[in-house]
């Protein structure tokens, strides 16, 4: 049940408007950060992009009592961005959520319109948008920013820490793009540097793009290196495992407690799967859907969408939860559930904000088993009946 709305009266700077909230929780210290930008007066983003006159500030408030009370706003612009801001026409955060790595590093997704040249070819300013991350290794005492995704145009973004089957870890960034498809990029040094971005042609963008959300969670199996030529275990009936298949070669899956499945080979943490929410049409902001990837570094690993809301819809943010043990859970442990907060309406995507909850079992039951071609009219894909159930919407 939702509590009454509270206005964060301290999350502001005088004569500025607050935008692009990005909450982040430090599990080591119990501190809740709320990052946001403030923009002078009514200055639009487009004006800053065209003129190169940046009037945006990086700000933060914190809470040590789970959001009951908040500190006054701190303007971090000079301390964190410093002189580099002269090359940024404007910048923004997320929006959505930040993440914390096992090392304790805090990460806030962001993007900037970098000034490529001023007064060139008849334009006041030529800029290119690039995604990147702010990060802290001392629990928020000091912040730095990493390098831009170098090649493709990228904007609003979110991050996931991805564990892989060989025991390695990469930082995954999924970003909005004006190129007709989402862009994803990987970092092998926890966000200081991103490798070149890749277009994800299974994840379409409407004209001019739209914000989307990604959340990572442990795969619902305990993976064990298999003996040579051992066939992979079959998924449970009614619970297909969509997505990438080639990466499963040479491993088997075991359910429940690893101690109950003795093996001479060592166990390690299950790899990370990623869920993504976004309007599913390439024509307009309609039909909010979720896609699943079981091998995020592969751009071809994304499933077709399960549409959770048919109609106009836009920005969204996902959260992952582990519910108490129940017999219906896939792995025999805590049941995995997701929450999605998203804009929607009947005539416009911006009439209301809805909250939906659904389990991983719901996702696996409702995601199409076979790829389908995106419908040009923006209507959701049609699929055969598989005993689907809807998500809870409030």
What do these coordinates show?
- With 394 residues, the chain is mainly beta.
- It has two domains: 10-146, Neuraminidase (6 Propeller); 158-221 and 269-369, Neuraminidase (6 Propeller), CATH 2.120.10.10.
- The protein has three helices and 22 strands.
- The chain has a seven-stranded antiparallel β-sheet with strand order 14-17-18-19-20-21-22, with helices on one face. Strands 5, 6, 7, 8 and 9 form a five-stranded antiparallel β-sheet that branches.
- Strand 11 (169-175) and strand 12 (181-187) form a beta hairpin.
- The N and C termini lie close together (10 Å).
- Residues 222-265, 371-378 and 381-388 have low confidence and may be disordered.
Short overview:
This protein has 394 residues and is mainly beta.
What are the main properties of this structure?
3 helices; mainly beta; exo-alpha-sialidase; Neuraminidase; glycosidase; 394 residues
Question: Helices, strands, pairings?
Answer:
Blueprint: E1 16-26, E2 31-40, H1 45-51, E3 56-63, E4 74-75, H2 77-81, E5 88-93, E6 99-100, E7 106-120, E8 123-136, E9 144-145, E10 157-163, E11 169-175, E12 181-187, E13 198-204, E14 213-218, E15 222-225, E16 251-254, E17 272-279, E18 286-293, E19 306-325, E20 334-344, E21 352-359, H3 360-366, E22 392-393
Protein name: exo-alpha-sialidase
InterPro entries: Sialidase (IPR011040), Sialidase_fam (IPR026856), Sialidase_sf (IPR036278)
Family: Belongs to the glycosyl hydrolase 33 family.
């Amino acid at each position: 049940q939702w509590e009454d709305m509270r206005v964060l009266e301290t999350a502001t700077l005088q004569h500025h408007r607050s935008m692009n909230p990005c909450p982040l929780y430090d599990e080591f210290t119990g501190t809740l950060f709320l990052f946001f930008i403030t923009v002078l007066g009514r200055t639009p983003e487009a004006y800053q992009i065209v003129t190169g006159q940046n009037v945006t500030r990086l700000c933060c408030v914190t809470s040590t009592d789970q959001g009951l009370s908040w500190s006054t706003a701190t303007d971090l612009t000079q301390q964190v961005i410093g002189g580099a801001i002269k090359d940024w026409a404007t910048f923004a955060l997320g929006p959505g959520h930040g993440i914390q790595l096992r090392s304790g590093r805090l990460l806030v997704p962001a993007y900037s319109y970098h000034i490529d040249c001023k007064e060139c070819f008849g334009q006041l300013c030529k800029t290119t948008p690039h995604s990147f991350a702010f990060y802290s290794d001392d629990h928020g005492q000091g912040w730095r920013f990493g390098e831009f995704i170098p090649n493709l145009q990228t904007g609003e973004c979110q991050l996931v820490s991805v564990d892989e089957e060989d025991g390695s870890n990469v930082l995954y960034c999924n970003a909005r793009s004006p190129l007709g498809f989402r862009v994803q990029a990987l970092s092998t040094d926890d966000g200081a540097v991103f490798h070149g971005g890749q277009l994800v042609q299974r994840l379409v963008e409407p004209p001019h793009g739209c914000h989307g959300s990604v959340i990572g969670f442990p795969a619902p199996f305990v993976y064990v290196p298999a003996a040579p030529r051992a066939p992979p275990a079959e998924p449970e009936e009614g619970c297909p495992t969509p997505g990438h298949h080639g990466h499963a070669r040479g491993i088997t899956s075991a359910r429940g407690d690893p101690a109950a499945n003795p093996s001479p080979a060592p166990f390690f943490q299950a790899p990370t799967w990623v869920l993504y929410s976004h309007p599913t049409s390439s024509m307009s902001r309609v039909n909010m859907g979720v896609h699943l990837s079981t091998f995020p570094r592969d751009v071809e690993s994304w499933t077709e969408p399960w549409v959770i809301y048919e109609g106009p819809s836009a920005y969204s943010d996902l959260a992952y939860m582990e519910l108490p043990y129940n017999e219906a859970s896939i792995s025999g442990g805590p049941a995995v559930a997701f929450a999605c907060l998203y804009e929607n309406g009947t005539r416009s995507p911006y009439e209301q904000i809805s909250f939906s909850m659904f389990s991983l079992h719901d996702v696996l039951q409702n995601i199409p088993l076979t790829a389908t071609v995106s419908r040009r009219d923006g209507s959701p894909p049609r699929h055969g009946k598989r005993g689907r159930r809807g998500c809870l919407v409030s």
